[in-house]
Amino acid sequence: MSSEMPPTAKKVPSERVHHGDTVVDPYAWLTAKDDPDTIAYLEAENAYTQQMTAHLKPLQETIFQEIKGRTLETDLSVPTRKGDWWYYSRTEEGKQYGIQCRLVAEGETPPELKAGEPLPGEQIMLDGNELAGESDFFSLGTSSVSPDGTLLAYSVNFTGDERFTLKIKNLATGETLPDEIPGIFYGGAWSADGSTFFYTTVDEAWRPYRVYRHTVGTPASEDVLVHEEQDERFWIGVGLTRSERYLVLSAGSKITSEIRILEADDPTGGFRVVRPRETGVEYGIDHAGDRFLVLHNKNAENFELATAPIDDPGTWTPLIGHREDTRLLDVDAFEGHTVVHFRRDGLTGVRILPADGEPYEIPMPEPIYDVAPSGNPEFVTGRLRLGYTSMVTPPSVYDYDLRTRELILLKRKPVLGGYDPADYEQFREWATAPDGTRVPISIAVRKGTERPAPTVLYGYGSYEISVDPSFSVARLSLLDRGFVFAIAHIRGGGEMGRRWYEDGKFQKKKNTFTDFVACAEHLRAGGWSSGVVARGGSAGGLLMGAVANLAPETFAGVVAEVPFVDALNTILDPSLPLTVIEWDEWGDPLHEADVYHYMKSYSPYENVDDRVYPPILAITSLNDTRVLYHEPAKWIARLRDTARGGPFLLKTEMGAGHGGRSGRYDSWREEAFVLSWVLDTAKATA
Questions:
Q1: Catalytic (active site) residue 55
Q2: Membrane-crossing residues (predicted)?
Q3: pLDDT of 8-49, one tens digit each?
């Protein structure tokens, strides 16, 4: 490696007093995004990281070519029936972005797919490559076809800051209408007749808080504000029920929901509240003929499914009662049946409730997997579309025939280069946390791999988000080099139900970190691992920083992507994007002393000490609006100043957002960079 010295971040300490305690932040100056010194420092860090990883260039290129070589670059998705059309997307070799298409529909069976070929008679609705042009970044925020199939509302962004410009295209003529609305958020919904489009905008804290009504063919200046959410803890969104009978305006904090509905054929009418918000009660609805289906957690920690009359949607009658062992995730209403997506024993499942028969669950072909309803826009249908994957089975699309109860495989994502699932194995292990809790671990390995082996352990553990066992083409570059890959299903996530989440937030957040360390130690003690490289992003990046402080000797390396490592300072500042919303997840350290002291005891930036730390790679984006770039920048600076060991590297994408680089080839190169660092780090510490 190069002996070049890393950049030195100047110290300009700032001090704030909270609850009698002084917070000293020596690198607060890095929060000034527009300061030339900040940009110069980030660019110097990039140059240093490039220098320190220059020897990995050949390996990076090899891994990139492996990812590219295993991917069918010209491919298309399984078409989904909606009205008179089959809708699908496809990719073309050499092009960064997808192409959205449709084809006149006949029957329920999708048209036959031919690898590498567009379908005859297709209509191209949107070509992401044409929209992106020469821009280094491109993102599509929404793409919504009107109920009659004639208009397409879509929104674009070229910086990564998640503020989009809405446009409307006439699909019959191919003409892009004069309608153009800047500064909108994701999503939106059409009225039943396609005359009106509802969309959301964000406030200065990047919180979607307003819903507007736009009449097609009128200037944006005439758009009507239909709802504004005053409570800074709540986000809002707008959608359309599958039946297309009701517009749904949802408001939600981390712990509370409130929904308003409006008949979709009356777009200028007023939304009515389904049930007034009650702190701690979450609910969602779907329309099912003469009633609503309501999924809620009122006196039901793992949620229950209820029905409600159309004219009295706030009165709920149980349909599927609460169970301690089963977390109900979602409900989908169709004309002749209801579909419930659930979670039990750390795995997902699908339950069918026929209108005229007994409920039953769809059996899955593997012991470890992830399954979910996917792409079912038609209210009247005899089939259910499912997405399925496991750690050895590539993403697969099934139709489930509700008459014959047969799973029909429509497509399995091609993996080129001779991939055979039989060459790989997946396992479920259980680690024991310090408090005795059993924590599931999903493991993938190539058959014949000599163990113990170098291991990548991935974790997240926040917001009740579950990291389910799934397939990755890029991961094969690790497995084929003798690595073990494992997922730690730690508390704070949702893998084992709502209680699993509750036991990893607020004053129990440290369970998330000790669970992860216990999983790493289990892999070592169980003969799986010769050394563990930890990887996580966003809130999983907070996990990475916390476990590096908690047990640096346990890990051979740490990859922290867009990491939330300056948690205390961020959550103390309500002027920052999303902070107030986050108080329902982490607590409110600004007003509550016990929360402040607890967060300070685990926030990664606050707890770096002079022990020997493993090598750490932090990756961030300058335009990230969710975890601001300065968090990892400050963290790496403090590690260099305080800790021993390393090296500590920072890589900043200077023109991207929270999701990193936008084009698929660019993202493959980014992944190749990370994997080459992991391979090199594991080898150096073996």
A1: no
A2: none
A3: 898 998 998 999 998 889 999 999 999 999 999 999 999 999
